[in-house]
Amino acid sequence: MNQITKQKAHIVFTLNGEPVEVAFAPHKTLLEVLREDMGLMGTKHGCELGECGTCAVLVDGRSILSCLMLGLDAEDRAVETIEGMATADGPHPLQETFADTGAAQCGYCTPGFLLVAKELLAHNANPSRDEIREALSGNLCRCTGYIKIYEAVELAAAKMRGEEMTLPKESVYGYK
Amino acid sequence: MKPFVYSRATEAAAAVRQVSNERSAKFIAGGTNLLDLMKSGVELPDRLVDIARLPLAEITALPQGGVRIGAMARNSTAANHPLVRERYPVLTQAFLAGATGQIRNMASVGGNLMQRTRCPYFYDPAMRCNKREPGSGCSAVEGFNRIHAVLGASEQCIAVHPSDMCVALAALDAVVRVQGPEGEREIPFDDFHRLPGDTPQQDTNLRHGELITAVDLPALPFAKRSHYLKVRDRASYEFALVSVAAVLDVSGGRVRDARVALGGVAHKPWRAREAEKILTGARANEETYRKAAEAALSGARAYKHNTFKIELAKRAIVRALSTAGGSGA
User: Which of A65, A134, B23, B275 has the maximum number of C-beta atoms within 10 A of its C-beta?
Assistant: First the structure.
């Protein structure tokens, strides 16, 4: 680690697959470093106290709350934010199904949900409704009532397993 | 957040030295509680010594059938470790009842022991609180005290300990291993956390600069028959109103041995020894469990808004014991 003063820290870490270097005030949380020092606004400020889950990102593949982690703690680790979820091939299947089912309304909680759901599907390709509910229980959504979010995760899981799955028509966004 | 000097420790002895030498220095591991207290202005350390990367995360079997959990093991790792799952299901259940996946991925086992109360008056520097500012008074005694203690409280403080993990550790007679400036020592779990008395600012008997290195779980073969029951205001992501860790050794319809600990009712994880005395040797049935529950709460005292906790705790004890005891075979 480079010398850290009360005013400035300087670290290297992997962000969405690419090595990055950043300098920031050492008391900043990872959330603040991502938004203010790296210009990545996809990770949202919510409660700031670990109660809402909207600031969730993946660190070394595991979901954490970036509002409760010092930016310094990211040193030499791999951080994935919502900006890294889509690839050159297009959106991640979860992003597609969240759009298809209308699992996002105001959208403020969506980045956190998507990343936590991605972590779940990396460890469990075919989660039950209860497993999905448990995995996402740290993410609060005040718009959707959660059902569409659970359906979107189930649909994405099926897609990623290469299976066909159709939702009831009334669950699909835009159905009349 | 107030600026601080930060350093990352690469060996335990150096970390201990750095914190011991400075009154307002603190260890930081997962940060899930310390950082929010710093944001709220409750904790104002001048120096943070980051211990998260110390090589203290291993979970290993001990020679006599126990398990050692390194202090830096993540709550999610410890919860799902095969040794913990097989030997101490009550501990796995307690871990998984606490917080959420994201916080369990961050929080260390040592840090969980050091969680501070979630009393809202403690969290609000505008309110009087003897724990935050000794001698200023307790806003909870005359305030909204629905979530507060019914056992072991004092006029100075009626806060409760928030941890689920610690309730299971209390029932399992865990031992906390610590390293300090003068060397290592072991603290039996019951002596680790304190009742408030006249010094509610002190949550534990850990001395300044002492570092938790591991938690040892002694062998307890009957812990395979155990249950953690948590009652809370919503189904997930909430602290316990009341919780019960129940471990029962039952054979031939009788209770051979029992461990019962309660959460959400006191300033520390509350070992219900009166209940254990009644259980040991008695028939494994609901009548026994009810008597045990009455004994556990016999010294309870409620405040204006938390009378319900006494009855809730009794019923939770009966339910947890019935689940742990199974058919009583």
Answer: A65
